[in-house]
Amino acid sequence: MGTPPDFNGLTVASFESRMAEEMTNLITRHGGRPMVAPALREIPLENNAEALRFGEHLLAGRVDMLVLLTGVGTRALAEVLETRVSRKEMTAALRRVSLVARGPKPVAALKDLGLSATLTVPEPNTWRDIIHTLDAHKPVKGLRVAIQEYGVPNHELVEALKQRGAQVTRVPVYRWALPEDTGPLQRVLDAVAAGQVGVLLITNAAQIDHVMQVVEQGGRTDQFQRAVQRMVVASIGPTASERLRSHGLPVDLEPSHPKMGILVKEASEQAHRLLRKKRGTRNAE
């Protein structure tokens, strides 16, 4: 029997939050039965003390480099700074520093501000790619480097910069929390544990931490890990894959480019073949 051209009726789970509707539509379009429940809630900091302090240092000329990790975070940082200074003052100060963009989304956010990235980190945009780019084009020894953080701190990036002689300042702009209502997430996790899900799509490394937090709170870590071993796990890219493996979970495929649409398309094309291989059966149910 040939491999179906799409999910062909498989139940496909995702923990996407901001683009949950788009993910649902993509899974449906590629022949899957979507189970989409957010594992994340984006929380702006009530008191953006670190961001405002960064703004003071920026205006005073005490920042040499700003590493921008996300487009959303770049825009949020600009919004915080604009509560204290004009956009003209802010952009003038940013033009005096090296702006390092982790991929196209921060580049687009900078463009909206009338700014250009000094360096753009290539795919797959991991912290290691940031370091390799800096080592090759802009060594950081002796520089005052600020990092716009997203979700959870990237300790590896901070340490790698410090090891190279940089003076590093973290600038968290928003954090992740569990959804206020975890009922939909619990229902997806129940379906996974019951073996009712064929494919798991991961689009953000922080999703994994939150899923495992909920699983551990329910005392079901081993059960969940065993269930996931029999599923196809598709990860958006190396950062998410690294997080999956750190929790003892498999990674069966990464897309050719770290885009949600490509992730769903390529997962749909490979899901049945991978399921047969993992389950040792002729037909993936």
Account of the 3D structure:
The structure is a single chain. The protein has 12 helices and 11 strands. The chain is α/β, with parallel strands linked by helices. It folds into 2 domains: 11-40 and 180-279, Rossmann fold (3-Layer(aba) Sandwich); 43-176, Rossmann fold, CATH 3.40.50. A 5-stranded parallel beta sheet has the order 6-5-4-7-8, sandwiched between helices. Helix 3 (71-81) packs parallel to helix 5 (104-112) and helix 9 (205-217) packs parallel to helix 11 (238-246).
Q: Going across the biggest sheet, name each strand in turn.
A: 6-5-4-7-8
Strand fraction band?
15-25%
Q: Can you tell me the number of structural domains? A: 2
Average residue-wise pLDDT: 93
Q: What is the CATH architecture annotation of the largest domain? A: 3-Layer(aba) Sandwich
Helical segment count: 12
What is the fold named in CATH at topology level of the largest domain? Rossmann fold
- Give the low-pLDDT segments: none
Kindly, what is the distance between the CA atoms of the first and last residues, rounded to a whole number of angstroms? 13 Å
Query: SSE order, as H and E?
Result: EHEEHEHHEHEHEHEEHEHHEHH
Counting DSSP E segments of at least 2 residues, the number of strands comes to 11
The helix/strand class is alpha/beta
What Rg is obtained from the alpha carbons, in whole angstroms? 21 Å
Reported for the largest beta sheet, the result is: 5 strands, parallel
CATH class of the largest domain, please? Alpha Beta
How much helix is in the residues? Answer: 40-55%
The gross shape turns out to be: elongated
